[in-house]
Write a structure and sequence with these properties.
The protein folds into three domains: about 80 residues, 2-Layer Sandwich (Phosphorylase Kinase, domain 1); about 250 residues, Transferase(Phosphotransferase), domain 1; about 40 residues, no CATH class. Helix content is about 35%, strand content about 15%. β2 and β3 form a beta hairpin.
Length: about 425
């Protein structure tokens, strides 16, 4: 089938994304000639990879509009043979990338943005959909590899996730040829891959992801990233490896490690002796024990044995049970849903800690029932403070007006005047 290149929508690192004139539901990706190292991007190897993906699609995800899958390969027929230019993929409905979904907003300090911050219940639902989509990809033999937040979009109206950059997936074809993922965003590289690259470096071998000896990315490394995303969805967008020492205080806290270095140094926020560097991160006790155990397997036990990490099915079941039977609505904030075993809402407490850190004000909390916490919001505290200020202003103004009136009467009726012969102001009677 012939495709006509329409309007340019996006200029990416590897290629350009265009509309397809014949079909508004399709997009076209045309590769650039070379990458940053001068290597041809649309190589014969990539052509074979795309052809394999075209023949072996995850039909359930394509039917849901969940993957930008190569459904046709674009070639230019020349005298020297077919030269691959790019591919055709479905046009996905994406309202926001996953990063913006779980990026923390405070109800008062970020009031203009707070309506875009999904509720805890919605974030759990997005996590469930993420698990479902990953499970189908793994069942078809595909590994995402570079499983970062920029490659995942979300449809606000349904909560469904969308996978972009599918042509970078890590896969093995029917002949046993491995088409590797060559790059990975910092902060999403599993610890075993970091160790592997470091060992190659020590031995003097090439240690970049495009040249390090295989294996690199596996379903276990995807499961590590899945746990990262779920942690961020549940814990106000906090990275699970942004931990600092438990005894660290505001004035003595060193900057937490970031990216792959944080993973390499095992700066997990709930590791013994650690705490989250961000005060708006709820404590581990705010999670259901079953969820805490899954994170423990993903980030602690799975560090030495990646095979023990929970897979998409285990996470799906745990989150579905949580959404169905494990959470309750907060009485103070409609976006807060917390776990039934808790006496108070941890998300309210996290908001209040963040507000206090940013402004110096402390909000008041009133527990009216063991299962319900009514929190005086930061907005209410500010309004109350303004009300007190206005009342004080009115009282002060009345006192000043009365005092002025008394002085005026004394001055005019009693004959009070200034006598320059004395050293101070006195009442002189005529």
């Amino acid at each position: 089938m012939a495709y006509t290149k329409g309007s340019l929508l996006y200029d990416g690192g590897e290629g350009f994304i265009y509309e397809v004139t014949e079909n508004p539901d399709l997009l076209m990706k045309i590769y650039k000639e070379t990458d940053m190292h001068g290597n041809r991007i649309a190589s014969p190897e990539l052509y074979k990879k795309l052809e394999f993906m075209k023949r072996n699609p995850p039909m359930g995800l394509i039917a849901k509009g969940a993957v930008a899958w190569p459904i046709d390969v674009i070639v230019d027929k020349t005298e020297d043979g077919n030269m691959m230019l790019g591919f055709i993929m479905p046009r996905l409905k994406v309202d926001e990338h996953l990063l913006r979904i779980y990026s923390y907003r405070h109800p008062v300090l970020d009031e203009d943005e707070y309506d875009k911050f999904p509720s805890v219940k919605s974030r759990i639902a997005i996590g469930i959909n993420l698990c479902s989509a990953l499970q189908e990809l793994h069942a078809k033999g595909y590994v995402i590899g570079d499983f970062n937040h920029e490659n995942i979009g979300v449809d606000y109206s349904t909560g469904q996730v969308r996978f972009m950059d599918c042509d970078s997936f890590h896969l093995t074809d029917d002949e046993g040829t491995i088409y590797r993922t060559n790059v990975c965003m910092a902060g999403y590289l599993a610890p075993e891959i970091i160790r592997h690259c470091n060992n190659e470096r020590t031995e003097g071998n090439p240690h970049n992801l495009d040249s390090v000896t295989l294996p690199t990315f596996t379903v276990h490394s995807d499961n590590f990233c899945l746990a990262l995303h779920i942690f961020k969805l549940l814990m106000n967008g906090v990275d699970p490896f942004r931990g600092i020492k438990s005894e660290a205080t505001g004035c003595s806290t060193a900057s937490p490690f970031v990216g792959n270095e944080a993973i390499e140094r095992n700066a997990y926020v709930y590791k013994e002796g650690n705490k989250a560097s961000a005060v708006f991160c709820p404590p581990a006790e705010s999670l259901q024990p079953q969820i805490v155990e899954l994170f423990q397997k993903a980030f602690i036990e799975g560090r030495s044995d990646p095979s023990v990490r929970p897979n998409a099915t285990l996470w799906y079941n745990a989150l579905y049970e949580l959404l169905s039977n494990g959470i309750m609505q907060c009485a103070s904030n409609e976006k807060h849903h917390y776990f039934k075993h808790l006496p108070t809402c941890p998300y309210c407490k996290a908001d209040n800690k963040h507000y206090h850190e940013q402004t110096g004000f402390i909000t008041k909390q009133y527990k009216v029932d063991p299962a319900v916490l009514l929190v005086q919001s930061a907005h209410d505290v500010v309004a109350y403070s303004r009300g007190k200020t206005q009342t004080l202003y009115i009282i002060t103004s009345l006192i000043l007006w009365v005092s002025t009136a008394i002085v005026y009467i004394v001055w005019n009726v009693s004959g009070w005047k200034y006598d320059s012969s004395v050293k101070s102001c006195q009442l002189v009677w005529i």
